[in-house]
Amino acid sequence: MVKLKLFFNQAGEVDITGLNHTSTVQDFFEAVDEFLTENPLPCDACKEHCCKGRFKINMDSISAKKISKGKLERIIPKLFVDVGENKLEIFMVAGHKKCRHLDGLGRCLIYKERTASCRTYICIPQSACYRILDAAIAAEMHHAMRAEYLNAVIKDPATPPAAIEPAKALCQEIINTSIAYGCSNYSEILIKDCVRSDFAHSNVSPAEVCLFNELISREDL
After folding, report:
1. Of 66, 102, 162, 171, which one is least surrounded by beta carbons within 10 A?
2. So what's the pLDDT on residue 221?
């Protein structure tokens, strides 16, 4: 089996090879980690905000389970929630405060358990394929986190009785469209399912789904 690998393409973008129908989210994360080990990012000269932590980071269900050691009730109260009409966003970092998981030098204290959004973030140019995988995986993991959050709300004795049934209905709707809900490890989740699922409920366009499927078919030959 050919493993996923990141490389610089002719345009100088971070690209990916080795994709196939059995590639998992864990395979992608390992490819990113290997690439960053071989090609350290120019953090000293970088103008992005990773080490400052003052931006929004979506929480994902598997990272939340790992950080809380399987007890989500510990972490739920520490998350930032943005609720509105047709909107439920769960953030680890809300954008106005420094991430509490950074030390005094801006280094991540939960690096091995960091969220999907953090794992796939690379502050250098990326190919269309990389951007599709980045968007789809982060969005799907966050989608599953919405259901985990709603489960916590339903079980919370402080939740008003009138809010229980709407929360249950929305939670079930999310579960029905999530392929990551209930998973404990990223190795259980296929990349191709993230792309298709994300097309249904988030950021990936039909054209991007077609491009992704073409790339997979090409790699499988």
Report:
1. 162
2. 37
Question: For the segment 56-71, what is each residue's pLDDT rounded down to a tens digit?
Answer: 788 899 999 999 888 8
Return d(Cα 121, Cα 118) in angstroms, integer: 5
Question: What type of residue sits at position 216?
Answer: I
Report the alpha-carbon distance of residue 83 to residue 137 in Å, rounded: 22
Structure token pair of residue 148:
């985990």
According to DSSP, the β-strands at 80-84 and 87-94 are: antiparallel
Cβ–Cβ contacts within 10 Å for residue 122, how many?
Answer: 17
Q: Are 74 and 68 in contact (CB under 8 A)?
A: yes
- Inter-residue contact 3 to 18 (CB < 8 Å): yes
Q: Residue 182 has which token pair?
A: 């209930």
- DSSP, res 90: E
DSSP 24-72: BHHHHHHHHHHHHHHS---GGG--SSTTT--SEEE--HHHHHHHTTT-H
| pTM of the entire predicted model | 0.86
Phi, psi of 18 (to 5 degrees): 95, 5
> 9, exposed or middle or buried, with CB in 10 Å at 0-12, 13-18, 19+?
middle
**Look-up of token digits 């509105």:** 84
